[in-house]
């Protein structure tokens, strides 16, 4: 995988437009489909509402967001439309690309699979002012800080491309989430984030219970939070994200943050 942008004429004067041209051209030339492994992604026409890139083999769609500096808050489209797409399950996966302006090269590419998108990671922005062309329009931000580490599938990290087979394996281990209802998926991802937040490879059930108040705040209507948390730990164990060591002790599986 070549990480440099092509040195060619760009039909834009704006720095942001030039960067978008370079990064989209690079993604269409160098990136493969994480869902099926197809060698190329096709660029969709500008202003296509569903995404920026598509795999013609499996029809997986990707929305490309490029930035010279990393940020945990990624601006996106209309807030209400985003929530409707999540409910319908037709949102694209998010492709985050960081680049070095001086070297004209890609430094990081991480993909958040569409099945990691839940309403909790979508933040409404302030409505546009009355003087704006689209007065009252409400956009949204994607809060990457609320996405589990397992939901960031790296293709390029710190200027080095990762082996394709490893990338595809990391993607496929999360694919079971596609078959879960949105609320059930939300519970599972929240408990996964709790286990990651403990900060140790090995932990105890009591460490997970320390997040009970947090989970109760997220799901105030649930009167059996601890039972629900244990249920999610069982799913994470069955899907290979954590290992059960016995006597209320667990260990993060190899390759899981």
Number of distinct helices: 7
Mean pLDDT: 90
Secondary-structure element order, as H and E? HEEEEHEEEEEEHHEHHHEE
Helix fraction bin: 25-40%
Q: What is the CA-based Rg, rounded?
A: 20 Å
CATH class of the largest domain: Alpha Beta
CATH topology of the largest domain: PvuII Endonuclease, Chain A
How far is the first residue's CA from the last residue's CA?
25 Å
The number of domains is 2
Q: Largest sheet, if any?
A: 7 strands, mixed
* Percent of sequence in beta strands: 15-25%
Level-2 CATH architecture of the largest domain:
3-Layer(aba) Sandwich
The CATH homologous superfamily name of the largest domain equals Dam replacing family, catalytic PD-(D/E)XK domain
What order do the strands of the largest sheet run in, or round the barrel if closed?
A: 1-2-3-5-6-9-10
Structure classification: alpha+beta
Low-confidence stretches: none
Work out the number of β strands. Answer: 13
Shape: globular
Protein model, in words:
There is one protein chain. The model has no long low-confidence stretch (mean pLDDT about 90). It contains seven helices and 13 strands. It has two domains: about 15-175, Dam replacing family, catalytic PD-(D/E)XK domain (PvuII Endonuclease, Chain A); about 180-250, Arc Repressor Mutant, subunit A. The protein is α+β, with helices and mostly antiparallel strands. The two termini are about 25 Å apart. The strands form three sheets. Strands 1-2-3-5-6-9-10 form a seven-stranded mixed sheet. The chain has a three-stranded antiparallel sheet with strand order 4-8-7. It has a three-stranded antiparallel sheet with strand order 11-13-12. A hairpin with a 2-residue loop joins strand 9 and strand 10 (about 160).
């Amino acid at each position: 995988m070549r990480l440099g942008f092509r040195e060619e004429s760009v039909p834009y004067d704006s720095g942001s437009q030039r960067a978008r041209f370079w990064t989209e051209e690079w993604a269409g030339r160098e990136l493969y489909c994480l869902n099926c492994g197809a060698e190329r992604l096709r660029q969709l026409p500008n202003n296509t509402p569903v995404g920026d890139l598509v795999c013609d083999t499996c029809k997986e769609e990707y929305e490309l967001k490029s930035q010279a500096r990393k940020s945990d808050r990624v601006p996106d489209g209309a807030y209400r439309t985003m929530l409707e797409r999540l409910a319908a399950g037709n949102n694209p996966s998010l492709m985050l690309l960081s680049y070095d302006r001086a070297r004209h090269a890609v430094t990081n590419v991480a993909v958040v699979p569409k099945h990691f998108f839940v309403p909790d990671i979508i933040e409404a922005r302030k409505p546009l002012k009355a003087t704006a062309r689209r007065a009252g329009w409400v956009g949204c931000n994607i809060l990457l800080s609320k996405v589990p580490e397992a939901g960031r599938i790296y293709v390029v990290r710190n200027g080095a491309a990762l082996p394709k087979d490893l990338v595809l394996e990391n993607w496929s281990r999360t694919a079971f989430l596609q078959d879960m209802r949105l609320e059930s998926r939300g519970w599972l991802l929240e408990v996964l984030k709790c286990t990651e937040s403990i900060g140790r490879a090995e932990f105890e059930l009591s460490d997970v219970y320390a997040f009970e108040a947090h989970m109760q705040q997220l799901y105030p209507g649930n009167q059996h939070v601890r039972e629900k948390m244990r249920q999610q730990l069982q799913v994470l164990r069955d899907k290979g994200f954590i290992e059960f060591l016995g006597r209320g002790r667990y260990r993060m599986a190899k390759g899981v943050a």
